[in-house]
Design a protein that fits this description.
Length: about 180
């Protein structure tokens, strides 16, 4: 049976977990991050999205030719979903596309809520920034304890290589991986 270390300040981790759960489950009811709405002069305002485009410096998001959201904080991109940020995931997923073989058209725009995708972008920025803030404010945790427990778990399931990878990931000297008790 794997051993899970207890955090020295369990209450802080518990509180952070509750706040993270609230943020991530209730993201659609959160206030948007206060981004600057830049409307293009001479172009009628529209919220319709064909394809979102992030600026090269990642500080602005073009919703369409008439509207750009600017002032995206760099911290937004520190919260990652695999190999990309949550905002980059939204940019990738929320676009109009058509399957070449079937001709089926996928349109994420909502007729009953035209501002949905624009609002979602601001809410995802808020969730990302708040998540980074919460995680960075967690109390320090003994990384060697994590390594030892992870190695014990890896040994229990027969994966010594996984144990070495954990040791490297947490910067524990490689010779410590075999000292973990099972």
């Amino acid at each position: 049976m794997p051993r899970i270390p207890l955090a020295p300040d369990f209450a802080a981790f518990s509180s952070a977990g509750q706040e993270l759960a609230r943020l991530h489950l209730e993201y659609e009811s959160l206030d948007e991050w206060p981004l600057d709405w830049i409307e293009t002069p001479g172009v009628p305002l529209s919220y319709r999205v064909e394809k979102l485009k992030l600026s090269k410096d990642k500080t602005a998001l073009a919703i369409n030719p008439s509207l750009t959201l600017a002032g995206i904080p760099p911290e937004t991109f520190r919260y990652r979903l695999g190999n990309r940020s949550a905002l980059e995931w939204v940019i990738d997923q929320y676009q109009v596309n058509e399957d070449k073989r079937s001709g089926i058209r996928s349109d994420p725009n909502r007729a009953d809520d035209p501002e949905y995708i624009t609002r979602l972008a601001g809410q995802v920025v808020r969730v990302s920034i708040e998540t980074v803030r919460i995680v960075e404010n967690l109390p320090a945790f003994d990384r060697q304890t994590i390594s030892a427990v992870s190695c014990a778990t890896s040994k229990a399931i027969g994966s010594i290589d996984a144990c070495r990878q954990v040791a490297l990931a947490v910067s524990v000297p490689d010779n410590r991986w075999d000292q973990a008790a099972v």
